[in-house]
Amino acid sequence: MIIDCHGHYTTAPPGLKEFRDLQIRALTDPAINPSKASVRISDDEIRDSLEGAQLRLMRDRGIDVTIFSPIAGQMAHHIGNAVTSQLWSEVANDLIYRVTQLYPDNYIGVCQLPQSPLVPPKSVIPELERCIVELGFIGCNLNPDPSGGHWKDRPLYDRIWYPLYEKLVELDVPAMIHVSGSCNDCFHHTGAHYINGDTTAFMQFIQSDLFKDFPTLKFIIPHGGGAAPYHWGRYRGLAQDMGKPPLAEHLLKNVFFDTCVYHLPGIKLLLEVVPTENILFATEMVGAVKGIDPETGYHYDDTKRYIDQVDSLTETQRALIFEDNARRVYPRINPILDRIVARKEIAHG
Amino acid sequence: MIIDCHGHYTTAPPGLKEFRDLQIRALTDPAINPSKASVRISDDEIRDSLEGAQLRLMRDRGIDVTIFSPIAGQMAHHIGNAVTSQLWSEVANDLIYRVTQLYPDNYIGVCQLPQSPLVPPKSVIPELERCIVELGFIGCNLNPDPSGGHWKDRPLYDRIWYPLYEKLVELDVPAMIHVSGSCNDCFHHTGAHYINGDTTAFMQFIQSDLFKDFPTLKFIIPHGGGAAPYHWGRYRGLAQDMGKPPLAEHLLKNVFFDTCVYHLPGIKLLLEVVPTENILFATEMVGAVKGIDPETGYHYDDTKRYIDQVDSLTETQRALIFEDNARRVYPRINPILDRIVARKEIAHG
């Protein structure tokens, strides 16, 4: 089975944005009072939004299942306050839930958290719990910078994050580290802020002893781990200079990377320096880079093609990257995948 | 000839820090009034600081010349105001000048700029001009984030930077993009802020048309270009989605990368995806990573060893990386190198 661990509902029907626009207008016009009930999106609109885009691409590329979450760039935790983020997250997560119900064989949910700048992260626990326990989601996206490019909140190793980590451990779900849009002109959204967010989180994990306190806590750093694999020697050396244990011991039981690296040399580097046990297949399609690479004739984000071209991978390693690591990092995926397999067996007689 | 284009005077004698500490104390205690004349550093101290460190390592590794600048992490443009930065830059640059006078065969100067948060960059022009014209320096370090991890200033493509760029073009000197220390807890100094600064600058160049306005302006992005080469497909794709020309045309006549990547797979990737014409040899020793890599038995920052191991490079390509590109990117290095060569010929009879 091929599992894409990193997809956002970037093609969501216009009713989602209409709600969000209304919610943002309501911040300055109290006469507007959008509720969850005001979201107008039909099942047919959801089907249309996916059939011609993600679902078609998944079929074209041989991807069975996508771990699917709300649009990362539009989480925009910096807009409004914690109440704003709570309602917006509920709406965005409920829409993902509907996708998982309409396409239970193809989509498994991951939630957006109702973070807000300088608000203690424990405030997101109820929505996390609702999504995992009630909606059957298997993880969450955690924004290390709710201020949207101003980095005003505490580093991920700060104890202010601990109540959330305790809940993640209790629920046995991982968090993907994922910033949202940038409201700092210095940082282009997908070209700088995303990659910087990944690199920054990785270094925060190196400089701390977070995983001594949470030995079973798991994070996925997307976009191939930001700059980390390219600078793997730098990070091994920095950890060493700080007196930390080797990275394998220090954080590789807890930190995983996806394969959203959009060219073959980058994927080769990732596979060479990071243990295969720490790499999860992902595309983030339809996402940051939508075009076709003139050098290959295929979409930049068709990452499966790059992995398929790395001859040195054994079948066991391929299975780890495409399926087994996801099963280990997202334990709650297993019963869902079992049901998918059972349905397929029935369908095929 | 082997030219290391990226060295900082990290081993500067204690008199430098004593001056800086005094200057920082003076910010809150006006009775203290440190002047340039109060800096107490002897020539012997300078010799001692280099002979056992950078100079020894240069000899061990076969590096002839280092393009040398003040300690990047201590530029700390966020401390005090523009007046503070002016005096501190003069002191730091004057010390580099003394190094170049004591070791004219080994060190060539690059200056720190007296930037200050939210102060228009044209304010640094007099110190830039002094260093290039009077001290014989060949370039400068330009901090894209004088606020030290808060990214409060304008992106590098903003017109507020243009007067400085006009002067760089007029003087025919490049700028190395180099952030300083981080005063934002989220960003580890050398593990996150440095690499993010590089990635951010590269993306700022992609999203703008800066080099249409300044076709001869040249920047070196250090630390192997941050995350850029690892995500080269992403950046090619983002430029393409934005309707920009291919990177070769869009910015590779103006943007260069150094080789401060501290492991062989990273160097291999850099050499594979970035044209050889755009890569300048560098170590940044003694710098961010001081240890010995247990996997190789050599210093992480002994980047020459990695390049030497890449068999696919031709002799012409090696000459570009180790010497010729530096001569092209830093045109003012040429008469200095000519004099070094002439002295060596005389010395060898």
UniProtKB/TrEMBL annotation, chains A, B:
<dbReference type="InterPro" id="IPR032466">
    <property type="entry name" value="Metal_Hydrolase"/>
</dbReference>
<protein>
    <submittedName>
        <fullName>Amidohydrolase</fullName>
    </submittedName>
</protein>
<dbReference type="InterPro" id="IPR032465">
    <property type="entry name" value="ACMSD"/>
</dbReference>
<feature type="domain" description="Amidohydrolase-related">
    <location>
        <begin position="3"/>
        <end position="331"/>
    </location>
</feature>
<keyword id="KW-0456">Lyase</keyword>
<dbReference type="InterPro" id="IPR006680">
    <property type="entry name" value="Amidohydro-rel"/>
</dbReference>
<keyword id="KW-0614">Plasmid</keyword>
<dbReference type="Pfam" id="PF04909">
    <property type="entry name" value="Amidohydro_2"/>
</dbReference>
